[in-house]
């Protein structure tokens, strides 16, 4: 395969990876997309491998996260973030090129490639600025049989297996294998696809049920003008709450559904109080709190007696979306950094909300972007969360695929931790999700809607909840160690040749 063909294959693979996620959702393309990347890294030297990795990842990330430019109003953060994520893939590609040179058996090349791929995914999901897990292969496989491994190995297991299937598929069709070896490779590939379907899913009985009403009040566009009008967003949620068609045990509003802090603002406080009294049950409310020149993203329970619970405060604000790293430096080059006038500061865990009077209800909370961050979700589950709540505000992303990509993550978390999950958006997409990841009800973008379902409450702890953090750490350490060792060997050999 020529250099040009390798780059064309890489770009085609990146486009296939993009198509595997919403808005297209052709998940079956993902193994082939990853297989194309794998093949590009083992056919040529490190330079072509790195360029192929960069081409593949830019072809994937640029369209996959194009909604970032809609949110912040300029293309800088979108291009910068896509480039940062692509550098991780390019570095992985160089390392995989070195490793596949030294490994002889195709099966060992596949195993090492799959493990290091999953490890580098985790590395980019943890750094810089806390990482950006968007685009993990595992999330795009939530509708495939491979997702059945989620309760056991989480993101790492599903991503690694998806990669392995693609690598084996390209090995079977591209190498000069004997007919018997080719047939064996195909059979192994089929076995890896079938195996997860036979894995038993968590079967613990629920401790009870909870009838949940998810209220999507909608936000009129333009969004900034709507939020500037005091009480407009809150009023829309009040009206939709009053229109609930049947009794519920708990009402959930989305992130920043209260457009002013109801604990401090009289108008908003009266609206929230009226909503709570109209249904006679607690409402989980989200609002922004301003304090000491910073802002905090709070979520708390409003009760019919007028009281509020202690809040859960978002622990992982989004860099360049909710706060600007190195603001004073970047301002010298980009005046648009001040579009975000007040930085959002992180809160502290655990990611849990207790709902007074509704035992055994403990809400594991993951506010918006936090559903992509496994540590946050796992923290809430291990703290006793019996229902996962994902309040979100997708209004700044327009009619993009951001909300349906997020829904994939919510479904993956439901399956991974065996928890019913409520993704509740101010403007869509909202969904009530069963513990097996299936969607019981779903809304559409920029519509007013209410979703009602009786959801099971579970407290069992899956293997992914017990050991998920250690699996991720092991994958990162192993991937980084193999890369460093490979680089050291290449450097040493090159130095010896230069001296000879």
Describe this structure in words.
With 500 residues, the chain is an alpha/beta fold. The protein has two domains: 3-202 and 468-499; 208-461, Carbon-nitrogen hydrolase (Nitrilase/N-carbamoyl-D-aminoacid amidohydrolase, 4-Layer Sandwich), CATH 3.60.110. The protein is built from 15 helices and twelve strands. A six-stranded mixed sheet has the order 5-4-3-2-1-12. Helix 1 (3-20) runs parallel beside helix 3 and helix 5 (76-102) packs antiparallel against helix 6 (106-124). Residues 210-457 form the CN hydrolase domain. GO terms for molecular function: N-acyltransferase activity. Keywords: Acyltransferase, Cell membrane, Lipoprotein, Membrane, Transferase, Transmembrane, Transmembrane helix. Its EC number is 2.3.1.269. Pathway: Protein modification; lipoprotein biosynthesis (N-acyl transfer).
Provide a quick synopsis of the model.
With 500 residues, the protein is α/β, with parallel strands linked by helices. The protein has helices at residues 3-20, 30-43, 46-64, 67-72, 76-102, 106-124, 150-174, 179-194, 223-228, 232-242, 266-279, 327-330, 374-382, 402-417, 463-499; strands spanning 208-216, 250-253, 283-291, 294-302, 312-313, 352-354, 362-365, 387-392, 421-425, 431-433, 439-442, 449-457. It has two domains: 3-202 and 468-499; 208-461, Nitrilase/N-carbamoyl-D-aminoacid amidohydrolase.
């Amino acid at each position: 395969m020529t250099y040009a063909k390798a780059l064309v294959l890489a770009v085609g693979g990146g486009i296939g990876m993009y198509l595997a996620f919403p808005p297209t959702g052709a998940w079956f393309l993902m193994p082939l997309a990853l297989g194309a990347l794998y093949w590009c890294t083992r056919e040529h030297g490190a330079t072509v491998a790195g360029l192929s990795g960069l081409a593949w990842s830019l072809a994937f990330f640029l369209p996959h996260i194009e909604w970032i430019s809609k949110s912040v109003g300029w293309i800088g953060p979108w291009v910068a973030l896509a480039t940062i994520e692509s550098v991780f893939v390019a570095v992985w590609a160089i390392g995989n090129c070195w490793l596949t040179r030294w490994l002889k058996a195709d099966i060992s090349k596949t195993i090492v490639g799959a493990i290091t791929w999953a490890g580098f995914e985790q590395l980019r999901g943890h750094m810089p600025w806390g990482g950006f897990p968007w685009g993990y292969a595992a999330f795009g496989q939530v509708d495939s049989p491979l997702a059945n491994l989620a309760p056991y190995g989480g993101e790492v297991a599903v991503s690694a297996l998806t990669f392995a299937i693609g690598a084996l598929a390209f090995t079977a069709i591209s190498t000069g294998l004997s007919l018997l070896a080719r047939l064996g490779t195909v059979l192994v590939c089929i076995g890896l696809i079938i195996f997860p379907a036979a894995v038993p899913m968590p079967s613990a009985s629920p401790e009870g049920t909870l009838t949940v009403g998810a209220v999507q009040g909608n936000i009129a566009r333009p969004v900034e003008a709507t939020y500037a009008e005091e009480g407009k967003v809150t009023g829309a949620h009040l009206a939709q709450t009053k229109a609930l068609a049947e009794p519920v045990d708990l009402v959930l509003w989305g992130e920043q559904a209260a457009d002013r802090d109801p604990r401090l603002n009289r108008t908003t406080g009266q609206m929230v109080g009226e909503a709570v009294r109209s249904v006679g049950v607690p409402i989980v409310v989200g609002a922004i709190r301003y304090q000491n020149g910073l802002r905090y993203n709070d979520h708390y329970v409003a009760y019919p007696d007028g009281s509020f619970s202690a809040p859960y405060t978002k622990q992982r604000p989004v860099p360049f979306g909710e706060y600007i790293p190195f603001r004073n430096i970047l301002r010298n080059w980009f005046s648009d950094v001040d579009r975000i006038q007040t930085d959002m500061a992180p809160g502290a865990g655990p990611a849990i909300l207790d709902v007074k009077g509704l035992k055994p209800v403990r809400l594991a909370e993951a506010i918006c972007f936090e559903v992509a961050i496994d540590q946050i979700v796992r923290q809430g589950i291990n703290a006793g969360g019996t229902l996962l709540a994902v309040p979100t505000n997708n209004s700044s992303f327009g009619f993009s695929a951001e909300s349906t990509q997020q829904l994939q993550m919510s479904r993956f978390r439901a399956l991974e931790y065996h928890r019913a999950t409520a993704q509740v958006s101010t403007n869509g997409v909202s969904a009530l999700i069963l513990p097996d990841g299936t969607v019981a009800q779903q809304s559409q973008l920029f519509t007013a809607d209410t979703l009602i379902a009786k959801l099971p409450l579970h407290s069992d702890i899956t293997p992914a909840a017990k050991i998920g953090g250690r699996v991720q750490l092991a994958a990162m350490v192993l991937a980084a160690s193999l890369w460093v060792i490979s680089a050291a060997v290449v450097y040493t050999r090159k130095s010896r040749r230069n001296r000879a």
